[in-house]
Amino acid sequence: MSAGCCRISPRPAPSPEGCQAMDAPVPKNVTVGPVPTGYYRWEPEEDDVLICRAVREETHDVKTFVFAPRHKRQFEFVSGQFLTFEFEIAGETIHRCYTISSPPTRPDTVSITVKRVPGGPVSNFLHAEFQPGMMLKATVPMGVFSWSGMQATKYLFISGGSGITPMMSMTRASFDLALISDIAFVHAARSPADIIFRDELDYMSRRNRSIRPTFIVEDDAPRESWGGYRGRLDGNKLAMICPDFRERTVFVCGPAPFMKAVKTTLKEAGFDMGRYFQESFNFDDFTEEAQEKITEAAEEIDSGVRIFQLEFTKTGRTIECPEGMTVLEAARRAGMRLPSSCSKGLCGTCKSKLTAGSVEMKHGGGIRQREIDAGMALLCCSKPKTDLVIER
């Protein structure tokens, strides 16, 4: 960045998808010289409110929501990262994280693409009630599921359903920057009508031959018979679609059973799993992997340690938590299904109010200091130091 450029809280630009510098108005009370190539980054600590600029229908049950800061700012992130939003629904505060589907090469807005889930309070609120002009609070982009900084030239993206969003951000960035990257993009859907971003992927492939999307569906759509690949993705189909898949770096995102099946297929095919990356977020399913981690944690705890009482005010449940175990792990062992996602203190989905007691919390950035000072905690990375009363 050239001398004389003013930038709030500078940090290294992400790679390989750096945000392009653009002119921006100077905030009040800031005295600077000419700003020929500068821009101001969106800072949630200063203003964490985003305004919805557009709502776009992708399929019959999938919509994209486009957001911008209330004031002139630009976003800085890498493809594959997510935003955590705060929703007020029916008098309850709910946190949900959504992967950014737009590319960092278009930094004036960010987009999330949300599938409507039967019974899902947030997805149904967004689809039924959320309109342009409405506002939400959000955190800074976070997450490590990204190809940023990688030197590979051949990629294989495999997605199922709404798991297409991080791959779409990467592919859009590659298209915008004309990167010399060979991208084989395999997406699985229920029917042709459920293929998210189908037209855009086809357009990008026509304009850039290094982007090659392939779709696999299970059934025909009411108005379209499918002439392409059908059924579930397996080793035979993968070899036909992408014969050189063993030479590629693979990114996978989708429902937990889908990712597990893809991982098994690649292992059985002799793929080098050192070049395998999958998104670990899982809002609804209590996976076998999570159960194994909880079991391991329980086995490591000495039977002579102190047992704390955890009272959940909204559910009326009181459970026990051994010293050294997180609140989330103890709740799951007791059969409670608390909102959670990353289990690493990143996303903020499990953020809850402690009305009594204290915890030891080692988080990854999913909570602000002012929230901690107000008694909030991330249950996935909080270990009780006393008995607790939790607003859940």
From TrEMBL:
Residue span, 2Fe-2S ferredoxin-type domain: 308-392
Keyword GTP-binding: no
Keywords assigned by UniProt, alphabetized: 2Fe-2S, FAD, Flavoprotein, Iron, Iron-sulfur, Metal-binding, Oxidoreductase
Domain FAD-binding FR-type: 44-148
Pfam families: FAD_binding_6, Fer2, NAD_binding_1
Keyword Lipid biosynthesis among UniProt keywords: no
Cofactor: [2Fe-2S] cluster; FAD
InterPro entries found in the cross-reference section: 2Fe-2S_ferredoxin-like_sf, 2Fe-2S_ferredoxin-type, 2Fe2S_fd_BS, Beta-grasp_dom_sf, Cbr1-like_FAD-bd_dom, FAD-bd_FR_type, Flavoprot_Pyr_Nucl_cyt_Rdtase, FNR_nucleotide-bd
PROSITE patterns found in the cross-reference section: 2FE2S_FER_1, 2FE2S_FER_2, FAD_FR
Similarity remark: In the N-terminal section; belongs to the FAD-binding oxidoreductase type 6 family.
Protein's recorded name: Hybrid-cluster NAD(P)-dependent oxidoreductase
The species this protein was found in: Jiella sonneratiae
